Amino acid sequence: MVSTRLSKEFRHIVRIHGTDLDGSQNLDFAIRTISGVDRAMSNAVVKATGLNPKARLGEVSDEDLRKIEEALKEPAKHGVPSWLLNYRKDLQSGESFHLLGSDLSLRVRSDIDFMRKIQSRKGIRHSLGLKVRGQRTKTTGRTGRVVGVKKKGIIAAAAAAAAREESG
Questions:
Q1: Is residue 29 in some structural domain?
Q2: What is the DSSP track for 53-66?
Q3: Of all residues in the chain, what percent are helix, strand and coil, respectively (each to 5)?
Q4: Run of H or E residues at 131
Q5: What are the distances in angstroms from CA 88 to CA 70, 83, 96, 99, 114?
Q6: 10: how many CB neighbours lie within 10 A of its CB?
Q7: How sure is the predictor about 164, in pLDDT bands with cuts at 50, 70 and 90?
Q8: What is the widest separation between alpha-carbon atoms in the chain?
Q9: Are 68 and 53 in contact (CB under 8 A)?
């Protein structure tokens, strides 16, 4: 909840890396709304920039926001461990990096297309619209398909069978 005593410099909406963030939220929580930033990455970025994680995002200065944005763009250069990055040992370059926002969604889409192209098990399951990661499929994931038996069809089939018996 936002206190009623807000300074004139308080910003209700802060834009970081193409995402509008709520200025009334704590710094560590507000950064998580950016696509590609989870709890661990948020905590690591806030710690790397040396800011108070419980400070409100709307009260943070422009210089500190630039620090946060730089740390999100290149977290490895700011002391964030490589195991927190979302692309480790890339297939083409062999480097580890961290993607955010639309870059992340485009990269995931291209990776899925690559798996379809080489016809790996995961690629085939993606193309068929099935579960990819070993989940059960007998009872779950039945959206868009007929699940049960329709009562009208059974009654019509029974009536047709009865009519054949009487005539034959």
A1: yes
A2: TTSBGGGS-HHHHH
A3: 50, 5, 45
A4: none
A5: 19, 7, 4, 11, 17
A6: 15
A7: confident
A8: 92
A9: no
Range of the domain at 59: 13-82
CATH number of the domain enclosing 41: 1.10.8.50
Q: Are 68 and 16 in contact (CB under 8 A)?
A: yes
At residue 104, does pLDDT exceed 60? Answer: yes
CA 166 vs. chain centroid, Å, equals: 62
* Confidence grade of residue 148 (pLDDT, cut at 50, 70, 90): low
pTM as predicted: 0.69
- Helix (H) / strand (E) element for 100: namely none
Question: Does residue 137 belong to any structural domain of this protein?
Answer: no
Residue 156 inside a domain? The answer is no
Count of domains observed in the chain? 1
Per residue in 107-130, pLDDT (tens digit) is 999 999 999 999 999 999 999 888
- Locate 163 and state its tokens: 């009519």
Q: Per the domain annotation, does 77 fall within a domain?
A: yes
The Cα–Cα gap between 131 and 32 comes to: 27
Q: What does the alpha-carbon distance between residue 152 and residue 147 come to, in Å, rounded to a whole number? A: 15
- Alpha-carbon gap, residue 139 to 133, rounded angstroms: 16
